[in-house]
Amino acid sequence: MKIHKVYFLFILFLVNNVFITITNSRGEVLFWKSIGYLKVKGLKKLTPSVTKVFINYLWAFKTFKFHIKLKGFNKFKKQIIKSLLLIFFRNILSLTDESLVPNNGCKLKKQRRL
């Protein structure tokens, strides 16, 4: 039986960019990239073709076992997750979404009437 090392794949979705970071169990960064690395500017960063090329950079890590953690919102988030599942189908141990969703906060103080 082979012993596989377990790594964490963090994907941070920003308004105009996507960051990918691969760390080991101690939190030491092994690899990181952003879509800006592909020399694409502005809204062209978020086109489906560019995101597929970006995900293909992870092909070298195909043999690793991953815990994937997602954070943030983006219109192509679903597509990026689908392409990750195609590449790492058997190597994904867990997939968690750590996006913070507001719950409208605390109740405002009652207004004083004069």
TrEMBL record:
Species for this entry: Osmundea sinicola
Transmembrane regions: 6-23
Source domain of life: Eukaryota
GO process annotations (BP): translation
GO CC terms in record: ribonucleoprotein complex; ribosome
Protein's name according to its UniProt entry: Ribosomal protein S11
PANTHER family for the chain: 40S RIBOSOMAL PROTEIN S14/30S RIBOSOMAL PROTEIN S11 (PTHR11759)
Protein's UniProt keywords contain Ribonucleoprotein: yes
Keyword Protease: no
